Amino acid sequence: MEERNIAFMFYALAIAWGLLFGYLATLAARQRRLQRELDNLRKIVQSQQEAP
Amino acid sequence: MRQKWIYVLLGLAAVLLIRNLYVILYVLPDEKEQGPIYRVIFFHLPAFFTAGLCYMAALLASLHTLLRQSSRADALAVAATEVGLAFAAVNLITGMIWARIIWGIWWTWDARLTWALICWLIYAGYLMLRHAIEDPTQRARHSAVLNVFAFAAVIITWKAIEWWRTQHPGPVLSIRGARGAMDPAMESMIYQNWLALLLLGAVLVALRLDQERVQREVEALRRQAHAKA
After folding, report:
1. Lesser CB count within 10 Å: N end or C end of chain B?
2. Residue B35 pairs with which residues in a beta bridge?
3. B125: distance to nearest CA of chain A, Å?
4. ipTM of the assembly?
């Protein structure tokens, strides 16, 4: 019983940390993807403006 | 400069979280009836408070959006809501793990648990609604109205343990009138870990806000590119 109690405590703490830092990692990855998309779009719009 | 502050806050949050984890695991003794599993409360409660504060920030930002048609306030509302959902998920999952050991079940339709889940689903619905509306002005207005009404669920969730005495434990913190229900060292640890989670929450909201700004720029450029094509 005691072993299960300790194991579940570790699961809970690991999930709490995992969820929050996983979300942080997701945010960072999403930010990089958006920044790439923004750079691409800027190039497209710029080339459209330069085209006659 | 802003980026620097985000890194400083993130570093501070990480240091505090590691230090708190050490105290929680090695310094504080086991609770006499629950054993080691009671330590879940040091994340369960602070995550709930942090989610509540995020929802409150989202409420204020939504009201500002409705009154002033501010797109920045709308961005803050969505950022705070999403971060609030992450903390609410931590609250729900850690609570379920604790319940499996103490009650022998993962879930019960107790008033507090049910309202916490309803609350989570309403705010998840808010994020889904935003995806469904393309026009930015309409999206800001409709989702702000939903966000304002959604806060009623937060209040009900908060008060549920006082209004309905069901399976979930009643208030244990002295700030909620439960003097002596918890050892002062343990109660103090809850506030210390709340501070750490608040710092982390502030970082997450700031990052999500940046993302919203870039997202809006992307949407504007896409419209511009399509108009010229």
Report:
1. N
2. B31
3. 19
4. 0.89
